[in-house]
């Protein structure tokens, strides 16, 4: 038997693996006096016989005693890969467990070696919740036990995050407006009559609001929101109109009332809802005899009151005004209203449809967001102004009204990408307003699908369906917004 030893490692072999070096050592000639290479694992024969191996190559027990071939199998890298995957899987599971634990106990200290006290306290709190929920359920049951009472998460004052969607200014007769514009444009200010001066206030109010929409004009540079409400830009038209109107509390003529309405719309576009609400109170007292102006102000009153959580300036029961005639301006002359040709579609159909939709919103504010009578609407045992009780019959009634409104809506105004840009814009506004009214209806019940907020509650099918409908409507609003943004049909503060 030859006494072979492995050759020493050369500098050029530093890039090889240890197993490549060992393979080369098998074929290398031995050099006298060289120390044999030691291996960190036992040879195949010693491992098979389960005896101790000296770790040399060749092994003394194999070569010197039994004359067996001394071989070493290369280790599999698969085990190392599996161990890495196992560690990564453990890290992922640990991260998910920490996330779930923080949702269950938000204040838990994960660095605490003994978090048992915090967990036990959380379980005790949850054990006390069912008796309190049962007590609330018994208090919610009224004389009519067949009617389900829903617990609202909002305050009775109803602070709503509702974006104003009233962008239709169908309260000015367009031909008359431009006729007066030509007359005023040709005269100096000193020669204007009292009627023409009032019109000048209307003109500046229209210009102030129109600058908020100037990105509709392809020939004008786009104006940012900051520039639009800046003191030196658009606001100067508003303040000129304000000075021309003089005493806004004495707006008795139609032209001044129309100018006041445009100023209200401008304040809404500039997010000055407090000033808008003050102007609405002035305009409402003089608007009941003018259908278009009255219902435009009526819509703004409901929207602004909903956003600010204030009572309506005029209740639905106090209104007996008929809706505006569904005829466009070109068919209204000094001699009377001309019958439009058969099949003619009027924008005032959409205006009246929006008015009816806003009236449904007013009923939602009345039944779902009550403003007063806390003894009947706020649960006993809760702080007043924190929780109120909503009748399921009221919710079903409003759902029926919304369904009836959609069924009565003309197919011309339903969602459809075909048609003139003005018609498509109105369709989007109606669709968006309908979705927002639905969201305001279902928003107070979203806590029924929250695991944390519904702890201890007896969530029945109706409560859960209202919450699920709110989530579905929210997704629909997001889809509508994406579609509107892609088409680019809505300007200004939309």
From TrEMBL:
Gene3D superfamilies: Zn(2)-C6 fungal-type DNA-binding domain (4.10.240.10). Residues 1-33 are annotated as: Disordered. Keywords: DNA-binding, Metal-binding, Nucleus, Transcription, Transcription regulation, Zinc. GO terms for biological process: DNA-templated transcription; positive regulation of transcription by RNA polymerase II. The keyword RNA-binding does not apply. CDD domains: fungal_TF_MHR (cd12148), GAL4 (cd00067). Pfam families: Fungal_trans, Zn_clus. SUPFAM superfamilies: Zn2/Cys6 DNA-binding domain. It is found in: Nucleus. InterPro entries: Stress_Response_Reg (IPR051711), XnlR_reg_dom (IPR007219), Zn2-C6_fun-type_DNA-bd_sf (IPR036864), Zn2Cys6_DnaBD (IPR001138). GO terms for molecular function: DNA-binding transcription factor activity, RNA polymerase II-specific; sequence-specific DNA binding; zinc ion binding. One of its GO terms (cellular component) is nucleus. Residues 42-72 form the Zn(2)-C6 fungal-type domain. This is Fungal specific transcription factor factor.
């Amino acid at each position: 038997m030859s006494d072979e030893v492995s050759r020493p490692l050369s500098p050029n072999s530093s890039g090889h693996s240890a197993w490549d070096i060992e393979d080369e050592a098998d074929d290398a000639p031995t050099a006298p006096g060289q120390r044999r290479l030691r291996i960190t694992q036992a040879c195949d024969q010693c491992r098979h016989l389960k005896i101790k191996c000296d770790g040399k190559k060749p092994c003394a027990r194999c070569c010197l005693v039994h004359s067996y071939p001394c071989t070493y199998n290369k280790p599999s890298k698969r085990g190392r890969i599996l161990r890495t995957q196992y560690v990564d899987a453990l890290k992922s599971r640990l991260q998910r467990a920490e996330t779930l634990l923080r949702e269950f106990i938000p204040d838990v200290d994960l660095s605490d070696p003994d978090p048992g006290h915090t967990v036990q306290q959380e379980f005790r709190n949850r054990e006390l919740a069912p008796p309190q929920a049962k007590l609330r359920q018994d208090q919610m049951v009224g004389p009519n036990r067949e009617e389900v009472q829903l617990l609202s998460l909002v305050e009775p004052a109803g602070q709503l995050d509702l974006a104003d969607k009233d962008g239709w200014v169908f309260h000015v007769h367009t031909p008359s407006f431009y006729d007066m514009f030509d007359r005023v444009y040709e005269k100096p200010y000193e020669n204007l009559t009292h009627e023409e001066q009032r019109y000048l206030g209307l003109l500046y109010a229209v210009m102030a609001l129109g600058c908020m929409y100037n990105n509709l004009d392809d020939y004008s540079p786009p104006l940012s929101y900051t520039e639009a409400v800046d003191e030196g830009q658009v606001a100067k038209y508003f303040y000129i109109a304000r000075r021309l109107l003089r005493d806004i509390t004495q707006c008795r003529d139609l032209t001044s009332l129309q100018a006041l309405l445009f100023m209200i719309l401008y304040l809404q576009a500039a997010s000055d809802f407090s000033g808008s609400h003050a102007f609405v109170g002035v305009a409402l007292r003089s608007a009941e005899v003018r259908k278009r102006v009255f219902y435009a102000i009526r819509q703004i009153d409901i929207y602004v009151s909903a956003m600010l959580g204030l009572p309506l300036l005029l209740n639905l029961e106090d209104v007996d005004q008929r809706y505006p005639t569904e005829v466009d301006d070109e068919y209204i002359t000094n001699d009377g209203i001309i019958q439009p040709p058969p099949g003619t579609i009027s924008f005032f159909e959409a205006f009246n449809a929006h008015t009816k939709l806003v009236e449904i919103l007013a009923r939602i504010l009345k039944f779902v967001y009550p403003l007063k009578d806390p003894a009947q609407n706020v649960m006993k045992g809760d702080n007043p102004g924190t929780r109120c009780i909503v009748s399921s019959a009221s919710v079903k009634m409003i759902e029926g009204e919304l369904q009836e409104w959609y069924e009565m809506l003309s197919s011309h105004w339903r969602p459809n990408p075909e048609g003139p840009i003005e018609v498509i814009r109105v369709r989007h506004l109606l669709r968006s307003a309908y979705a927002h009214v639905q969201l305001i209806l279902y928003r107070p019940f979203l806590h029924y699908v929250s695991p944390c907020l519904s702890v201890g509650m007896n969530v029945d099918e109706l409560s859960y369906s209202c919450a699920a409908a709110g989530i579905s409507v929210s997704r629909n609003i997001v889809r509508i917004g994406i579609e509107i943004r892609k088409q680019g049909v809505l300007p200004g503060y939309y």
